[in-house]
Amino acid sequence: MTITTIFLSFLLLLFGRANSESQLNDKEQTVLLKLKQHWQNPPSLSHWQNPLSLSHLNSLNSSHHCNWPEITCTSGTVTQLRLQNKSITQTVPPFICDLKNLTAINLSFNFIPQEFPKALYNCSKLEELDLSQNYFNGTIPVDVHRLSGLRHFNLGANDFYGNIPASIGQLTELRTLKLFQCAFNGSFPPEIGNLSKLESLQLAYNVNMTAAELPSSFTELKKLKFLWIAASNLNGEIPEAIGEMEALEHLDLSKNNLTGKIPTSLFMPKNLRIVYLFRNQLSGEIPQVVEALNIDVIDLSDNKLTGSIPDDFGRLRNMTGLSLFFNQLSGKIPDSIGRLPSLIVLKVFSNNLSGTLPPDFGRYSMLVEFQVADNKLEGELPEHLCDNRRLVGVVAFNNNLTGELPKSLGNCNGLKIVTVYNNRLSGDIPSGLWTSLNLSVLILSDNSFTGELPQRVARNLSRLEINNNNFSGSLPPDIISWKMLNTLNLRRNKISGPIPEKLSNLVGLTELDLSENQLSGQIPLQLGLLKLTLLNLSSNHLTGRIPTQFENDAYASSFLNNLALCANKPSLNINNCNNSDHHKSSKVPSIYLHLIVSFVAAALLRLVVAMISIYRKGKHQLDSTWKFTIFQSVNFRESDILSGLTEDNVIGSGGSGKVYRVVVNDPNNIVAVKRIGNNRKLEQNLEKEFHAEVKILGSIRHSNIVKLLCCMSNENSKLLVYEYLKNHSLDEWLHRKSRASSTSSSIQNVVLDWPKRLQIAVGAAQGLYYMHHSCSPPIVHRDVKSSNILLDSEFNAKIADFGLAKMFKQGELATMSVVAGSFGYIAPEYAHTTRVNEKIDVYSFGVILLELTTGREASYGDEYTSLAEWAWRYIKDDIPIVDALDEEIKEPSYLEEMSSVFILGIICTNKEPSKRPSMKEVVQKLHKSSQPLVYGEKIATSLSDTSPLKNSKRKSTSENDEEILASIV
Ligand SMILES: *[C@@H]1O[C@H](CO)[C@@H](O)[C@H](O)[C@H]1NC(C)=O
Ligand SMILES: *[C@@H]1O[C@H](CO)[C@@H](O)[C@H](O)[C@H]1NC(C)=O
Ligand SMILES: *[C@@H]1O[C@H](CO)[C@@H](O)[C@H](O)[C@H]1NC(C)=O
């Protein structure tokens, strides 16, 4: 049999089955195809095809609509439509309910702009409706109860406003109701309490709600497991009956203005696991009786709670996190809490807790965070704190602790931060602590520690403050191993000997305080090369000239009370080196002057020191609290993120900081975290970049723009948490090979084939198009380059890194204070004027098109030219374009498309901004060249699709993904 006869007999078979069922099927398929057309044929639905159109014979088997992944059929009729994240930008048409048997519609994570689609009332069997994460607006209609069969209803993260109608309480079949993060005002209707079958109620982040109490009727929801009403302006007291909600598992009423006592029955529901009441105004005591023995996390921080920590918390054997900071709790921390076997995080700082710490903390659980600072605790730190080697932080400053640091801290390589200043601790530092692998902050100030300074310190140590102790000995001559230090404070110890010359090699040092020691000898002149914002060498025995760089008023008090120091400039509070008299003590007035000056200076110094320590005190408290801002609903907590910021998890680093890959909760839930700054005050430009990124990414959503899930900031660090994109950046795929010749062969073998590259070009273009044309005001990225195009597991492009992005008024030329961008991608007008518009992004995008078609790097070219100029010569000198195309992927069937995209790249990189197309035109052009492939419609390409060569190539790409990434990372 020939292939043709096989097809023919197949066709006959198909048409032969023309019974009534298949007619109905056809009708449903017609509705689906009409739907696709109504949505203007989004590429995500390109596989929705009529199997009977002859051009798709090759895909007959998979083309029955019941086989489309978005469709579920039951007994041959369409019952579920799952269209989340399909880049749908059009409205929901009434004819969707011609699919009479629909029970579930999911349109979440699209861009649907519309009022509530009342036409869905005609979907009479609807049980599940998810419209979340779209641009739906207007009010929820008062007759919404006509969707009477609904069991699951999600309208979260839309622009709905106005009142939530009381009639929602008539949807009595509801199991889940999610109305979080909209623009509702008014108050939550008490009628929700009638939904007796409700299991999950999510109303959080409706920040514009009128301040009102939590309706007490909600406590009638006896089947409710999940109650989330964070940040929605609740005030008044929590209803006492909340403890009678026997099914309750997850309770989150954080970030409201709740007042009064926590109901005594709160910890009664047997299945309760999560209790988040943080950031309210709750007062009185924490309920003492706990029946919910499976509790996982209790977070009551940032309230006004008084009284003691309940003994019953010591019975919570599954508790992993206890957070009670920023309250007025007093009394002793129950010893039984120290013995809890699951405890990972303890945060009880900034209370009035007293007595000794439970001695068993760290002994029986995998303790990670131990934060007890700013209380009235006494006695020793728990001896076993780091027995299980998971500890990351010991934050215990501002207490009355005595004794030595626990020995276990000397063998604790996960430690990042140890701040125990302002206690009465003594003894030597466990020797391993100085060099602990990951330690970055060590603050031991204002204690009575003894011993000598270490030769080496941890390779990441950036802040070492041990002032006001009894450390002795000298600074190590080979101090260069302290190379990551930003802050070094050794003030008021008993350190003697010279200042080592190599101190000047610590180029990151910005604060250096060696005052009030017994240092002698000359100040190494090279020290003047450091870029110090604070220098204090006063009250030592230093001699000789000070480095000339310090001869200005900024350092006027840096050298006080070193009688044998001198300077060339008389203005400093220092002897003049050229004044030969300065050694003679015969000049009485001068001596008086010295005395007066040193007296005044000493008084001033004391004042400054006092002020600094007050400032510091405030600062350290802030260190341990993060401002957490959520842009998308997330299922992790700040501690999940913080605990993942380990060196092992670093997947990249750049000018602004490191990027980490963090697994939160379960292995499939991965986020990328960008950390800006490193434990010291951020430079101004980094701070600006952070704000630009948060402002822009926090306000836009598009499937081709990386999702910012949340951000966290405190005074010293900013964290941006994004969706994690498995395939990293386009740059890595295109150019990694040419850079690292020694990489493993798996990389050498795998190249992005042309269909994937085209898909990436289309995606990135859509993202930029959205920024330039759909955002108001338009957003110009200013740093478009292949390393800022990230790829998900399906190679969908997402634009990232908005640190330089700017919002522009329409049509306006903005003046940029600095030229931003990256070599090879910078539009020429940028070099001679700082007034630019969105055409600079078009230029950079053109360079990316050239990279995709030629496989060359943006900086490729002769000594003075770039890839763009190199490519232009093909036009100017009339060289055949095929010669420029990437040999690795050049196949005859691709040549036409590759050439036209190459030419588009050249058009985009026109030197004249006005001659470059807009991103809208670019998208249209790309769509034209991509359609045959994306839709797989052209018979010619479809048939060649079956050639074994190409199939095996595709397959190997996906099979090797894991391996490749392992080596790229
Ligand atoms: C809906 O399902 C019923 C029962 O399975 C079936 O008889 C009917 O034809 C279906 N309706 C449509 C429009 O397919
Ligand atoms: C809803 O949004 C659309 C598109 O942004 C707008 O045209 C329309 O006026 C809005 N409708 C309401 C009721 O706000
Ligand atoms: C809340 O209301 C204010 C003032 O009406 C408005 O500017 C803001 O955008 C609203 N916020 C949300 C999330 O709708």
TrEMBL record:
Binding positions for ATP per the UniProt entry: K674
Matches recorded under PROSITE patterns: LRR, PROTEIN_KINASE_ATP, PROTEIN_KINASE_DOM, PROTEIN_KINASE_ST
Listed Pfam families: LRR_1 (PF00560), LRR_14 (PF23598), LRR_8 (PF13855), LRRNT_2 (PF08263), Pkinase (PF00069)
Positions of the Protein kinase domain: 645-934
Compositional bias of kind Acidic residues: 959-969
GO cellular component: plasma membrane
Signal peptide: 1-20
Superkingdom of source: Eukaryota
Keywords associated with the record: ATP-binding, Cell membrane, Glycoprotein, Kinase, Leucine-rich repeat, Membrane, Nucleotide-binding, Receptor, Repeat, Signal, Transferase, Transmembrane, Transmembrane helix
MF term (GO), any: receptor serine/threonine kinase binding
Gene3D superfamilies: Phosphorylase Kinase, domain 1 (3.30.200.20), Ribonuclease Inhibitor (3.80.10.10), Transferase(Phosphotransferase) domain 1 (1.10.510.10)
Membrane topology: Single-pass type I membrane protein
Database matches in InterPro entries: Kinase-like_dom_sf (IPR011009), Leu-rich_rpt (IPR001611), Leu-rich_rpt_typical-subtyp (IPR003591), LRR_dom_sf (IPR032675), LRR_N_plant-typ (IPR013210), LRR_R13L4/SHOC2-like (IPR055414), Plant_LRR-RLKs (IPR050647), Prot_kinase_dom (IPR000719)
Region described as Disordered: spans on this chain: 944-969
Compartments it resides in: Cell membrane
Name assigned to this protein: Protein kinase domain-containing protein
Species annotation: Castanea mollissima
